[in-house]
Backbone:
């Protein structure tokens, strides 16, 4: 397994698969983004990002499959449900925070500001190491209180606590990999992160089977497998960043915070981090209502989360693609391409969403059988699926419009729109409507309700931003 290879072995492997790009090829990629055919530029980002996100999601999906099939319903609930939402709460904040670095680097790369690119890369890496240490400590210390506060079923608390403790030990390498991947995508290289994830996914499958099926380590084995794969991915991405000869080269001697770069990174990324955290807090409150309904409902919701992730990761990949596209074209003063890029991305996302909706409506039950043999869990899960998937189309504007606007460096208002349109409205629904009619579908209603409201708000803001940019005004 690559986890045990030397740096030179890894580097030779990556070179042999033509993953390391030359300076000229990166310049060509940047030129294509700014001047080439828009939909081709977007898809050149989208597919590697989608495949990369797919394999990243498969880390947890494989975990769910292995514990669901070889351990049982309690173990499936322990690695999903509250556990997954709690991880997203802490991890999501930093990922949102670090998104500011990606926007800055893409803009600096668009106007070829080499010194600023280097400063941004090293500030970003310093930020991810410091953030990883903080999240590791917070994650482990707050695990038990969080499980009890959210009314996690007593029977799965020990398993959830065990999984989370080991999982958070891999936070620093996870952040290093995600930041390194963000840097590569920002300069136009979205293929390398995908290849690294494929390597990690293969390793994860092997370790899951070894630890769980052979050594019978249960949830603990799944957690160890995930942590080791994060370390492997971090090592590979750091080798690539240190060996490249391009302007985004990383050197340990240059690792430091550049104050004005850090300030800009936080200005763009902090609202996204806050948005992600508040988004997850609202989901945590929703998860509490699922927990009250019993272990079978928790397991069904956890299994649906794997199906929902297929839709989410596709829309997210389009969102990342349009953010990078928007950032580089905005940096190159090509506002016309920013607008066209948004519409073409939205069209492609809508078409994909319609296909997903039809497919999962018809064949969703077969996906549930991958995670559980419990017929009651499958029945509850299909009820969730049939309620939720027709509303997916109402969500896509949030991702595409917010990604376009963030690419121009505007992130505070998108954060406010999401906080009020999604987070607060969900909380109001949960504490007002649900107590009067406490059913599964009533809890689920908060999702389409808030997607529709937030999409309308983003459309209004997008037109305001583009109109003022066209007139040369700040927003």
Residues:
């Amino acid at each position: 397994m690559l986890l045990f290879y030397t740096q030179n072995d890894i580097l030779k492997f990556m070179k042999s698969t033509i993953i390391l790009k030359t300076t000229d090829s990166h310049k060509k990629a940047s030129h294509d983004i700014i001047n080439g055919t828009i939909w081709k530029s977007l898809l050149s980002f989208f597919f590697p990002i989608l495949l990369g996100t797919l394999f990243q999601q498969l880390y947890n999906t494989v975990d769910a499959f292995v514990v669901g099939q070889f351990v049982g319903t309690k173990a499936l609930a322990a690695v999903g449900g509250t556990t997954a939402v709690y991880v997203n709460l802490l991890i999501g904040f930093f990922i949102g925070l670090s998104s500011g670095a990606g926007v800055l680097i893409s803009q600096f790369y668009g106007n070829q500001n080499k010194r600023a690119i280097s400063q941004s890369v090293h500030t970003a890496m310093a930020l991810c190491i410091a953030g990883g240490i903080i999240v590791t400590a917070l994650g482990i210390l707050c695990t038990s209180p969080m499980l009890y506060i959210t009314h996690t079923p007593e029977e799965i608390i020990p398993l959830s606590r065990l999984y989370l403790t080991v999982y958070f030990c891999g936070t620093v390498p996870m952040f290093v990999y995600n930041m390194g991947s963000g840097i590569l995508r920002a300069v136009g290289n979205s293929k390398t992160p995908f290849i690294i994830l494929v390597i990690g996914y293969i390793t994860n499958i092997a370790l899951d089977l070894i630890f769980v099926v052979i050594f019978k380590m249960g949830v603990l084995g799944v957690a160890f497998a995930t942590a080791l794969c994060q370390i492997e991915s971090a090592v590979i991405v750091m080798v690539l960043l240190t060996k490249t000869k391009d302007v985004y080269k990383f050197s340990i001697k240059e690792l430091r915070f550049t104050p004005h770069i850090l300030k800009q990174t936080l200005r763009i990324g902090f609202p996204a981090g806050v948005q992600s955290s508040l988004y997850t807090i609202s989901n945590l409150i929703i998860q509490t209502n699922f927990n009250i309904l019993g272990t079978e409902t928790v397991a069904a919701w956890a299994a649906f989360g794997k199906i929902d992730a297929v839709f989410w990761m596709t829309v997210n990949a389009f969102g990342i693609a349009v953010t990078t596209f928007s950032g580089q074209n905005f940096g190159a003063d090509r506002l016309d391409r920013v607008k066209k890029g948004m519409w073409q991305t939205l069209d492609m996302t809508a078409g994909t969403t319609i296909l997903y909706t039809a497919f999962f409506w018809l064949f969703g039950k077969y996906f549930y059988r991958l995670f559980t043999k419990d017929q009651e869990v499958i029945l509850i899960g299909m009820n969730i699926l049939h309620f939720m998937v027709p509303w997916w189309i109402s969500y896509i504007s949030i991702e595409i419009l917010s990604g376009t606007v963030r690419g121009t460096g505007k992130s505070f208002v998108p954060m406010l729109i999401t906080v009020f349109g999604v987070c607060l409205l969900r909380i109001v629904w949960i504490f007002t409507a649900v107590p009067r009619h406490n059913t599964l579908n009533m809890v689920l209603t908060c999702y389409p309700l808030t997607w529709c409201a937030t999409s309308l708000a983003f459309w209004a803001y997008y037109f305001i931003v583009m109109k003022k940019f066209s007139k040369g005004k700040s927003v």
Summary: Residues 1-26 have pLDDT under 50 and may be disordered. The CA atoms of residues 176 and 206 lie 23 Å apart. The two ends are 50 Å apart (CA to CA).
